[in-house]
Amino acid sequence: MDRQSPDARDEEISTDPTPSSRRIAPVDASRVLIVATSRINRIVVAKIIERSGLKILSDLPENAESILDRLTPGTVILDCGPENRDCEHLMTRLATLRQNTQDGLPKVVLLTSRLPAAANIVVSEAVDAVVPKPIIPERLQAVVDRLSGRD
């Protein structure tokens, strides 16, 4: 049985019975996946992103790969915690998705309170933008709008 977290606001998405096959899931550029350990941060970011008219998926870092097995969102927002380590396991998966989709999706935004550490991640093929904390709605929304082509 496929379980989703209580705050994953997502219509029914068909699943491949063998998600470990790592096929590229269908791309939906209108969706944004918010990945964070803190439920409060997921809710705050979702409220900001909803202003852009995008559809929200929200979950914990440990559940994000199963979502990416079913769907490739247009944008992924990662809140990797105070040490930028909560989402490390997703970086390779995101880089692979970007290499295998026509438009280089998903676009990836990293939310961080540790900018020097984030500078190393930006060099990675998996991150498009770094937004410093505290999260300011105008700043985050502008970045997401630019990456999704809505600016």
Automatic annotation (TrEMBL):
GO terms for biological process: phosphorelay signal transduction system. The keyword Endoplasmic reticulum does not apply. The modification 4-aspartylphosphate is found at D79. It comes from the Bacteria. Residues 1-23 are annotated as: Disordered. InterPro entries: CheY-like_superfamily, Sig_transdc_resp-reg_receiver. Residues 31-148 form the Response regulatory domain. Residues 1-12 have a biased composition (Basic and acidic residues). The keyword Phosphoprotein applies. Keywords: Phosphoprotein. This is Response regulator. It comes from Oryzicola mucosus. The lineage of its organism: Bacteria, Pseudomonadati, Pseudomonadota, Alphaproteobacteria, Hyphomicrobiales.
